[in-house]
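Need tokens for this chain, all 55 residues.
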Amino acid sequence: MERTIKLLNIEEASSALGISPAEAWRYVMDGKLTAIMIDGRCLISELQLLCFMSN
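Here are the structure tokens for all 55 residues:
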């Protein structure tokens, strides 16, 4: 079975959370929201975002 992980950029993640991109960056920098850097882009997995939203 193939699994696909959707990655969101900061703007997409902040929109889903209903917060500003600056606040999303603060969550990442504070370690509250896990993100990865790929080619200079900060990306957050959709699963990680859902886990964050459920807490």
